[in-house]
Amino acid sequence: MTPFLSALFTPDDLVELRLIETWVEAGKKRSRYVRSAFDRAAAFDEAALADINAYCEVTRANAFFGVCPRPRREPGRSGTVLLCRCLWADLDHCRPPEAVERIGRAGLPTASAVVGSGNGSHVYWRLAEPVSFPTPSALEKISPAAAHVEGVVRGLSAKIGGDHTSDVARLLRLPGTLNRKDARNGRQPVPCEVYAAHDCRHPLALFEPFAAPVATPVKPRAPATGPVVASGGSGGLGWDGLTEKQRCVTERLIDRSAGAEVGGRSQADYALCSWAVKLGLDADALWGRVSDVGKFEERGEAYFSRTWDKAEAAVGSQRRRLAELFGI
């Protein structure tokens, strides 16, 4: 296990690695999902990093890892993450020395790791004790415990001028790899590397005074108009439950969403969600594939949920009409 990952995980923690190409086209940010992989933290050694870098060189991909351990080998979503070992902040256009100064001025504890991302800085504080999240109830998108941690992360970020990367399913750039943003247009890769590391762990209570107010997001109640296709993030198919052909078509639709022009992105995203609902794909499984894609990345999980809900309602209505007309 690399020294950086050993500062954030235990050897047996399951880590999500996601490879994504990002570039600018016609003045707009574009992205393309390349692949995901999951392995125990101990498996991410120097040899593995070399393999990751070699693959990224061929595909122009950027390597991101899930800051919180994953409970199973599926792309993380806030409602499925059950454990947090560290807090973090993402500071754009901020060099690591300035990030350290901001931490000191804000009166925050010493960071366990400060990373130069190639375009800014990532800061991590390892917790003295991990925070466990119960599985959300049927009416919750995330548990109150997870929402509380996200509020703490938001407060920390606001205190030192970071952005809004507070969801517990967050992916950040993996140190030891290259920032290949816009490599498609000839931009030279920049190293993502650890600037400072300290063997320190802090109790969550030290950070809670900085927490931003937060209410637990609640799922909308299902309409009482009859059964709809099973999906919606509760009991639908996982990615591995699809056939090879179904995965291929879904990936093409994801690529279409990633490359859609302004004015046609919502339509492409709706078509993708409609296809996924018809397959019976779990909403969490799809979100894990598109959270860094096009308008989904720009608007976040709330936009995805609205698009999914509209697609789910339309597909359910269509099926009910067919049942009434033909008795199927």
Explained architecture:
This protein has 328 residues and is an alpha+beta fold. The protein has two domains: 208 residues, RepB DNA-primase, N-terminal domain (Alpha-Beta Plaits, 2-Layer Sandwich); 88 residues, no CATH class. The strands form three sheets. A four-stranded antiparallel sheet has the order 2-1-3-7. A four-stranded antiparallel sheet has the order 4-6-5-10. A two-stranded antiparallel ribbon has the order 8-9. A hairpin with a 2-residue loop joins β1 and β2. α5 packs antiparallel against α6. The radius of gyration is 20 Å and the shape is globular. About 5% of the residues have low confidence.
Q: Structural class from helices and strands? A: alpha+beta
Uncertain regions: pLDDT < 50 for 5+ in a row? 220-234
Along the chain, the helix and strand elements come as: HEEHEEHEEHEEEEHHHH
* Number of individual domains: 2
The first-to-last residue Cα distance is 54 Å
According to CATH, the homologous superfamily of the largest domain is RepB DNA-primase, N-terminal domain
Q: Describe the largest sheet.
A: 4 strands, antiparallel
Taken from the alpha-carbon principal axes, the silhouette is globular
Record field, number of beta strands: 10
Bin the strand percentage.
Answer: 15-25%
Instruction: Name the CATH architecture of the largest domain.
Output: 2-Layer Sandwich
